[in-house]
């Protein structure tokens, strides 16, 4: 924040002569001394390679890959791939075994499709100057929501980002919270980048063999929550704890209308020719698109910077995988709804 912005904020809040006035802003510390010790989750992804490296979706027109994500989650949609597996339909922290969030990251535009919520007819700013076009993760843009209004200042007023990178007001982002029953739940090492290290923190050769022999156990132990947002510069849409999981608020239809299915990991290294071998895992996707303040994301990025593991490579939006073909989408979609929990987790 510039000195002019601080001065303007001080004046607008009528702080002069009123030292007790609450500003509503949270100061995020940046300690010079950090926790020491060995991050025992680091490098756990290596245990899954090369067995779970990307592979061709089809060979000689015959499907080789298991169910993929992200799919169409419109109510009533059913994929064509006949699945043998069942997704988790309880909130992850209520499941058996219980899962905890081990990472948070987001994609530019939605990787899933929900008709009339985020789809091919959605709207976004005409040009996004923050879109990355070079590097290892070319930022392919996914579907947009319908909220953006170029004549409404909350969609067009720039925000002074302090912690997140390459973000834009008015844009649509799909947030993913990978969860795991073998993560370092309840410890300083719970959140990890890359998320695979968090998901597989407790993995060993014996457990890998068990999970590989019984794929349903993978769907029971690994899940992702997905929720889609349009960014606004309006503090009426501030949510302070976005890092911990899907927002659940029945009054605002947040985290209530959910499609659960089994799929895979996503991202632009996969498409309808090259598929993910990390499957079947449970997905729980909110079908609605929600407004959220830029400051909510910036607070989340500040929280990410405080984690024991270095999460800096997840502070910007990743590219969106193209919508998965019907023939690669599981047919086990389950419509779920939930009571208004304190939090999605």
User: Helix/strand/pairing class, anyone?
Assistant: alpha+beta
The major β-sheet equals: 7 strands, mixed
The oligomeric state of the chains shown is single chain
Low-confidence stretches: 132-137
Total strands: the figure is 13
The first-to-last residue Cα distance is: 32 Å
Q: How many structural domains can be distinguished in the coordinates?
A: 1
Secondary-structure element sequence? HEEEEEEEHEHHHEEEEHE
Any idea what the shape is? globular
Mean pLDDT comes to 90
Strand % is 15-25%
Q: Determine the fraction of residues in helical runs and give it as a percent range.
A: 10-25%
Radius of gyration: 20 Å
Number of helices: 6
How are the SSEs ordered, and which strands pair?
Layout: H1 3-12, E1 55-56, E2 58-59, E3 62-63, E4 100-101, E5 105-108, E6 118-119, E7 144-145, H2 153-156, E8 172-180, H3 195-199, H4 205-213, H5 215-221, E9 222-232, E10 258-263, E11 274-275, E12 281-293, H6 294-305, E13 334-336
Parallel strand pairs: 9-12
Antiparallel strand pairs: 1-11, 2-3, 4-8, 5-8, 6-7, 8-9, 10-12, 10-13
Written overview of the protein:
A hairpin with a 2-residue loop joins strand 2 (58-59) and strand 3 (62-63). The protein is 14% helix and 17% strand. The protein is an alpha+beta fold and 345 residues long.
Core attributes:
globular, 14% helix, 7-stranded mixed beta sheet, 345 residues, alpha+beta, two-stranded antiparallel ribbon, single chain
Structure, briefly:
The protein is 14% helix and 17% strand. The protein has 345 residues and is α+β, with helices and mostly antiparallel strands. It has one domain.
């Amino acid at each position: 924040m510039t000195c002019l912005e601080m001065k303007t904020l001080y004046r607008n809040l009528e702080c002069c002569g009123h030292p007790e006035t609450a500003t509503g802003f949270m100061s995020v510390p940046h300690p010079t001394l950090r926790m020491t010790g060995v991050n025992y989750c680091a490098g756990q992804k290596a245990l899954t390679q090369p067995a779970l490296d990307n592979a061709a979706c089809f060979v000689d027109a015959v499907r080789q890959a298991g169910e993929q994500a992200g799919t169409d989650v419109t109510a009533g949609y059913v994929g064509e791939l006949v699945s043998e597996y069942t997704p988790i339909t309880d909130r992850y922290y209520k499941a058996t075994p219980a899962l905890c969030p081990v990472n948070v990251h987001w994609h530019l535009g939605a990787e899933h499709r929900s008709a009339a919520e985020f789809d091919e007819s959605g709207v976004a700013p005409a040009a996004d100057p923050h879109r990355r076009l070079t590097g290892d993760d070319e930022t392919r843009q996914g579907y947009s929501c319908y909220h953006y209004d170029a004549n409404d200042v909350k969609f067009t007023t720039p925000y002074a980002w302090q912690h997140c990178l390459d973000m834009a007001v008015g844009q649509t982002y799909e947030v993913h919270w990978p969860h795991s029953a073998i993560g370092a739940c309840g410890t300083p090492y719970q959140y990890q980048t890359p998320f695979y290290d968090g998901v597989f923190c407790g993995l060993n050769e014996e457990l890998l063999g068990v999970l590989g022999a019984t794929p349903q156990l993978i769907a029971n132990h690994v899940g992702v929550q997905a929720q889609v947002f349009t960014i606004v510069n309006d503090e009426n849409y501030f949510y302070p704890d976005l890092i911990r999981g899907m927002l659940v608020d029945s009054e605002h239809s947040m985290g209530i209308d959910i499609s659960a299915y089994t799929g895979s990991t996503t991202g632009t290294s996969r498409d309808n020719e090259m598929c993910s071998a990390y499957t079947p895992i449970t997905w729980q996707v909110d079908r609605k698109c929600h407004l959220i303040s830029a400051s909510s994301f910036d607070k989340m990025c500040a929280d990410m910077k405080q984690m024991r593991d270095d999460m800096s490579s997840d502070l910007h939006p990743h590219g969106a995988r193209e919508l998965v073909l019907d023939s690669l989408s599981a047919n086990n979609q389950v419509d779920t709804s939930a009571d208004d929990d304190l939090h999605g987790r």
